[in-house]
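Lecture 7, part 2: worked example. A protein chain together with cytidine-5'-monophosphate.
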Amino acid sequence: MASTSVKVRVPAKVNLQLSVGPLRPDGYHELATVFQAVSIFDEVTARSRAEVGITLTISGEGEGDLPLDTGNLAVRAAQALAESVGIDAAVDLHIHKAIPIAGGMAGGSADAAATLVACDALWRLGLPRDELTAIAAGLGADVPFALHGGTAIGTGRGDALMPVLSRGTFHWVFALAEAGLSTPAVYGQCDRLRENSVVADPRISDELMQAIRAGDAVMLGRSLSNDLQAAALSLRPALGQVLEMGDDLGALGGLVSGSGPTCALLARDEEHALDIAVGLSAAGVCRTVRRASGPVVGARVSG
Ligand code: C5P
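Predicted complex, written out as structure tokens:
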């Protein structure tokens, strides 16, 4: 019997480096970034539907707070895919979310990427990866990486990807905040903070690339960097306490994830990640903590 439902699992991301260059005429910033997909997953289920239309329900993180219409990138992803092949979209979508919303971990982009993969399978389109990637790039700068996963350098808006060979597994603790931060607001604040300085072209650190290739967590910890961090900290000064606490707990490095407000702390190993998570929880400096490892694969059909 033909399958009538497809489930896709998709990871969150952390930027190991986020080098932000000048503002471009199209409102985006020129980036040089290194993404790593980490094991915090959303799950998108696409179910076939008799009538034309797209419905969406959400459970988990952000339940009740997220739009369920075209204001949600997942709905726009299903629409964009149907339009690209000239069919009417007919699908019931459900997203079970674990990735924090407006958290700097690309949760909305992840859901869009998972929706593309799920609808492609449900509607038996079999689009090649590069076509899905092109549709993904039209939806948002982080969507192609959520399809791809692993570790990758992103240039341009962050959507021109080049895979990076990475050795071993890195262990992370993510500190989730009470309320999200708007990505455009954080980029805007970054522009204001740099108003009177010359903004250099973005560049990837050689030490960071060496650390990833060698699987060297100590070297990675000291080469983590995020040009949006000062902006996120100025909008949410309490994040400074999370990073300080990470330092006190012996994290190899720590930074604001993407545009924040989630903070990422790098641990020596799984046991150390547990120690950091317990210490952070006890200190009460964040809403909740999640342990995760990376790199992991991108959006894939599961089950
Ligand atoms: O592409 P996406 O909709 O995810 O981007 C959200 C916002 O983040 C953009 O509207 C822009 O304000 C900011 N952004 C940026 N430069 C980038 C990526 C995102 O300024 N390279």
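Residues 27-29, 31, 140-142, 157-158, 183-184, 187 surround cytidine-5'-monophosphate (CB under 6 Å). The CA atoms of residues 131 and 207 lie 34 Å apart. Keep this in mind for problem set question 3.
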